[in-house]
Amino acid sequence: xxxKTKDQEFLEFVVKSIVAxxxxxxxxxxxxxxxxLLTLHINPSDMGYVIGRRGQTAQxxxxxxxxxxxxxxxxxxxxxxxxxxxxxxxNIDTSSVDDLKI
Length: 102
Fold this sequence. Notes:
This protein is α+β, with helices and mostly antiparallel strands. It has three helices and three strands, in the order αββααβ. It is globular and about 55 Å long.
């Protein structure tokens, strides 16, 4: 991505200000018919800082992004990527439910 948009810059600035590993913060921006989706990638140890107690920090960041979006006539949604998620569905361990009978 050549240059970042205002919403990406804003998100990265806020998140880098609150995490312990700002060098690991990055975002990807996707635009579709539902609006703009910003996906936030952070260090796994920083998840607690970004989500906050009972999700209050993440909700506050989402609220601020909606205000930034409204100023630019765009609907902005935030997705916080799970740094512990497996990239391919083939890597999921299903051994505990393979013999499950319902």
